[in-house]
Every structure is written in structure tokens, then in C-alpha cells.
């Protein structure tokens, strides 16, 4: 959890695959107030699903990742380690209730607002941001 709206965060969002469709996602680095993202197409190695290739859609560059589960910190339910992450982060954590709604797309503030409707701690953080405006 960020300690405030200006605290640095790294976020990783991946869509669920649809029937006959690939997976897409986004890396985000910044704060709640400023940052940048890279949208990608995700494909798994058919022989080893922990090996994935991301095609960054802005420039077509391909990045190989190794995806491994890790032990989450207290207060989190999920943890994933990404070896080769182009944004430099190595570990991402989530809560069970933080499944991003499809309607939120890949824009971080939209995703956080949707998630805050079910997470009081995140809602309080976003309320503090509203107070600073």
C-alpha cells in the first residue's frame, strides 16, 4: 500500500483471456498523481507457463519474463515475482478482493477507484488524496 498519493508505486495488471483472444496488460510506475504505463500483449510458452513473452505495444519490443509465485506479506493474499520486468520491479502483491473490473481498463486511477469501493484501507488513502486537492 502506498503511504500517500505521492508515494512511488509499481502496478501490474493483466486481463483475463477471452474466448479466442490473447491476454493484455499494463505496467505502471509512478504515484497516484503522476506516472507512466506500458501496455503489452502477453503470451505463455506452451511447454512452461512460467515463461512468458510480453510484446510492448508502443514499440513492438519483446521482453521475456519468468513468473513465479512468492509468499505474500501480511495483509496481502497473492504475490508474484517477475524476473525480467522491464519496469524494474521484481515483486507484486495483491489482495483477493483486488480483481480489477474489466470496465476499469488499464488506467490506474480508474482501477484504484473501482477497487476502493470494496477496500476500506484503499478508500481512506484515496480520500486523503481528495483532501489534498
Describe the protein in words.
The protein has 133 residues and is of the alpha+beta class. It has a domain of 90 residues. It has a seven-stranded antiparallel sheet with strand order 1-2-3-4-5-6-7, with no helix packed on it. The model has no long low-confidence stretch (mean pLDDT 79).
Keywords:
7 strands, 17% helix, 133 residues, alpha+beta, globular
Summarize the structure.
With 133 residues, the chain is of the alpha+beta class. It has two helices and seven strands.
Write the layout of secondary structure elements.
Elements: E1 9-14, E2 23-30, E3 35-44, E4 51-56, E5 62-69, E6 78-83, E7 91-94, H1 108-116, H2 120-132
Antiparallel strand pairs: 1-2, 2-3, 3-4, 4-5, 5-6, 6-7
Strand content bin: 35-45%
Any low-confidence stretches, pLDDT <50, length ≥5?
none
Q: Gyration radius, to the nearest Å?
A: 15 Å
Note the gap between the termini: 20 Å
What is the string of SSEs from the N terminus onward?
Answer: EEEEEEEHH
Shape from CA axes?
globular
In order across it, which strands form the biggest sheet? 1-2-3-4-5-6-7
What is the structural class?
Answer: alpha+beta
Total DSSP E strands: 7
Largest sheet: 7 strands, antiparallel
Question: What is the residue-averaged pLDDT?
Answer: 79
Count of DSSP-assigned helices: 2
Approximately how much helix is present in the residues?
A: 10-25%
Amino acid at each position: 500500500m502506498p503511504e500517500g498519493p505521492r508515494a512511488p508505486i509499481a502496478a501490474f495488471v493483466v486481463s483475463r483471456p477471452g474466448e479466442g483472444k490473447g491476454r493484455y496488460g499494463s505496467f505502471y510506475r509512478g504515484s497516484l498523481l503522476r506516472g507512466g504505463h506500458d501496455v503489452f500483449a502477453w503470451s505463455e510458452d506452451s511447454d512452461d507457463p512460467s515463461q512468458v513473452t510480453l510484446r510492448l505495444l508502443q514499440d513492438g519490443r519483446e521482453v521475456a519474463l519468468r513468473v513465479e509465485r512468492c509468499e505474500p506479506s501480511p495483509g496481502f493474499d497473492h504475490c508474484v515475482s517477475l524476473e525480467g520486468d522491464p519496469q524494474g520491479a521484481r515483486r507484486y502483491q495483491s489482495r483477493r478482493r483486488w480483481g480489477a473490473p474489466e470496465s476499469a481498463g488499464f488506467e490506474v486511477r480508474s482501477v484504484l477507484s473501482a477497487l476502493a469501493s470494496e477496500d476500506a484501507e484503499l478508500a481512506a488513502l484515496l480520500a486523503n488524496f481528495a483532501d489534498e486537492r
